């Protein structure tokens, strides 16, 4: 019997995310081509690549905001596909941060963070508030707890979004271009929070163009192009030349300035 | 001078100049222009009134406005006795109120059906919408009264209520569905990503954001339901239009009574929409 990633993820509790031969189509356009990928407990994986290369699609397949059509994805020991009850369980172990924050505009910051714990694991209001304030403090925004998202800057909103995801105490955090919609002066406050999170040992999968962040934080860099994983190597290998031509061209383009 | 400056914008506002305002116009010119426009409207109405009066005179119609009082109410021995028009408008209100509630219910269920993943739910909702939208309301009413009512043993009032609810429900369904679908996709994704159940996602994330989009057109629909309710006069439900018809066959005062009936609908619907507008402004301010 061959030792595929899928079988490995069922037996090895240290593997939190596994892609095994995953493909996805949007109508006739193939967005993902035969993706194979493992993310282990405590690993920080940065996914980069030109726009349209499928990196967002791939990360969104992890919690099935996009569904794949071929292959198998395991997350935290469960196969994600179809079954809504199973999927809800997976989503409660996987936090996600979006490019456009997607905070709930009709709720205060505190309510944004407490909604999932209160509804999903039936915490009491008091317990949930306590947890929420704890995480809001960690992203240094507890003093804004009673405001509404529209009253906050982009960087502040993104930090709230991180606290919202953390409040479910996830085992993995997914970041889908978390700084791309931010004004330049706000990028660092978000990256700082993410770096801190990484230092605490959180398993993270991050789609980003911030190569400085990748250099500092990543264990591994995945480079994608045209729906394929072109490179999947350690950070050092990636930044010191052990990379293919496409990655070379991509890096030279975004590091020019 | 200061006094005038203070008063001119107020007058302008009163006359509704703001909408036709030209930025270079001095305020006095604006007032002159709106006075002229009001005069135009008055002249137009006067011409129409004269035409009706002249036409009625030519056919030797005898206006008997003095007789209409008791059609509304009479007071006998200090006791208030409602006339047919008051009785009729109460039935109209009852009819509209019950079918409003039912049509919102039907609309919500249909919207859920259309948005659901269930093939049966979508099929039922779509069939209902297509049938209601592609058959005449009058035929629907006859179906309810002559077919469904005898089968299920319901009286004419409830046949009218159910027919109106089914008809308006199809419009309510599209308003509700449109409002729900207008909520940004990122909100659905954020709800999903935090692991909310489908019910919680709609209850706490989507519906609260859809409601402000749904309520204004929905209240408009319910107000227009009052007008549409006149159609149940063809199955002789004793509402305002039926009472009007009955009065005419008793008194032959067709002109007076149709003016009065139309006026009563007009007063009812306009005052309701003014009320709804006030509520909306208050709600927006509270937010």
Task: Summarize, please.
Helices cover 40% and strands 25% of the residues of chain A. Chain A contains ten helices and ten strands. In chain A, the strands form two sheets. Chain A has a six-stranded mixed sheet, sandwiched between helices. Chain A has a four-stranded antiparallel sheet with strand order 2-1-4-5.
Question: What are the key terms here?
Answer:
heterodimer; A: alpha/beta; six-stranded mixed sheet; 10 helices; B: 287 residues; two-stranded antiparallel sheet; 78% helix; globular
Largest sheet of chain B: 2 strands, antiparallel
Q: Work out the number of β strands of chain B.
A: 2
Helical run tally of chain B: 11
Helix count, DSSP H or I runs of 4 or more residues of chain A: 10
Mean pLDDT over the full residue set of chain B: 86
SSE sequence of chain A, one letter per element: HEEEHEEHEHHHEHEHEEHH
Low-confidence stretches of chain A: none
Radius of gyration over C-alpha positions of chain B, nearest whole angstrom:
25 Å
Strand order of the largest sheet of chain A: 6-7-8-3-9-10
Largest protein interface, residues of each chain:
A-B, 24 and 17 residues
Q: Into which percent range does the helicity of residues of chain A fall?
A: 25-40%
Overall structural class of chain A, as computed from helix and strand content, comes to alpha/beta
Could you tell me how far the N terminus lies from the C terminus of chain B, measured between alpha carbons in angstroms? 40 Å
Average predicted local confidence, pLDDT of chain A: 90
